[in-house]
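Kindly inspect this one:
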Amino acid sequence: GANGEEQPCGSVTLVVHGDDGSTTVAGSRYNVATVGYCVAGAVDDGVFEPGENVVITNIMVRNNGGMRLPEGATFCFPDTATVKFEPHAVAVPPLDVCETCTLQPTAPIVGRLYDVPEVRKPRHAFRGAATLHSACSLLGRSFHDATVATELPMKYPVEICHAQAPKHLNPRETGTLVVRVKNTSALTLPCTGENDLMLHIVLHHHLRPSAAELRNHRELYYKCPSVAAGAEWEVALPFELSDDCLLLDKHEYAVELLYKQKRIYYRTMPIRHSPLYEPSGDADVLLFATPEMSRDDYMCWHQMFSALRLKYDVWDVERYEGISVRGDSGERHDESWVGRYHGRTVVLPHAAEHLHQLHAVDINEHFLGAEWRTDMNVANTTTTKYRHGDLDSSLVLLGVNPAAVIDDVLENGATAAQRWTISGSKFGLKATSFGTRSTAEAYTLAEQIATSLCDDDEDHQYRVEALRLNFVQNRAVQFWFGECDVLRHPLLRSARLIVVPHHAASALTADAPFNDAGLWASLPTLPKSRMMKALPNALACGTAMFDAVVALVAAQSVLWRVRALRNEDMSETTFVLPDGQQLSWSNVVCATLFDLCRSAYRKSLTALPQLEELVHAIELCSSGSFEQLTNSGELLINDVPAVMALLYRFKNDVSMPSSLLAEYELLRQRAERACLPSGSPPQPRGR
């Protein structure tokens, strides 16, 4: 009942009375359990291949019940989803308690593994599994312990264990496709008759065998000889790219394995037409071709460089396994780009994925020259301003967050910055009678020190790297906080490090597909216009192609941009913003001049060498000796006095507008005082 107490479990006793008057008493009835069985292929090579017959032998059962098993029990293997058996039923003889026997079927127990269709889509070697299980019953009632399941791993006795060719190739190079076929079974594969095995290679029409007798063949068949157990058969096919293939295009080849006249392996792999690095010596730009760059993207870059009249070299990042060094080895390339493009522009698309491959030391060397470390150490123990080699170089990074550039490049520890440790009275305050100084005051003072250094040095940025606090009161008048580590970045504040943080700035064809109509065909439908100033020279406006064009222009020297205003290829170009406003080519160039040479200067963020160029360009204009600006037509942009001074067509009989005199004198004086020795006239910089 509800309040009853728990009692011991009960039991059942089975009593069987025989016809002869005998009596058997047991605690349980008879039960058949499967002890085990063997499964082997019809060809016992250690491999279960699709569609193969399997044979089951050595079936052992045991009566583990408490009574003798009577006659009439049958044992079988029912069909499953993966194995179909020929009809069979094996009689189980009477078994005493705990008796074991091996069943003797009247005919072999044969099942057929499921077959798989011919491979139609690229994939690797087939791997599968088939499951079968045993069963035993008596008078329509099954014995649970007789059900034993077995999973058979399935594969083909042969497979392609290696198929590889160069991922990139140039028409002047020869690549080799190497394919190895392995016998994974325990027997020698005869490869004759129904076991016929063939290798089929299909080449794109821009890929051709190097051998003269095979030059016009694009499909090649190789009949496999007999292969010993565990051995491999190798085929090597030298091939080349045709001369008419296009740079950065990808061309596929296919490898097929035919076994018993069925395709059991099919895989396609691309080969990229990769450029060789061949520095021309007079290139204006080095373009890093990343693995993500498509043929259409490359054509956009080519069209931009051509329109801007910039000669360029190409460095394939995938071919040379990196940018600064080769792969994980950390070794320099036999022929490196580093040091070849001083005073020129380096462009890295997909910078978010590859910026880590461009080392900070190489960025410094590109901007400052090979002796930048020595130049930095000249003022190792002082914060006084110093001059070092500014080579008027530029770097354009596309598709990367400006914050990542600061973290990964500008603040790359000992390789990218100069350190000072400030301590003692320089990192302390007057003592007070109101107790000890606080940690917050120490951090505030450290930031004030960095800010003061920035104010004193118009060229460089400073920041606090670390504090090691050790509060000490010295002679009751000074309280020392400990030590403060300050970093000074070697790059000038206005170094033309152009960052384009556009979400699609690396994929130029994402929102403006390239077509034969030309580079600018789709630009009048820009989806958005914006200016971002996360870094002094970070630009992002309009489509990805527009961003790239502006970045390339902003990366060039002032004198280059002045000359570019008369670029015939670009002079008729009009950029249309979403609000309907039209921007001419001169508007774009002038905007970059104004942004880099005037607005940034007011914030102490522009390069003094650029100011020197600006002053020199103004002098050329005012003297009338600059031929590009003597043609008819005014090139003005509203509300930009400094650029107006630069662009206005000054002639001998036309004086400088009085509204520009103060601006001009300010630029000239600051450039002479900060950039040049006393009394030296301004000189042009850059190319």
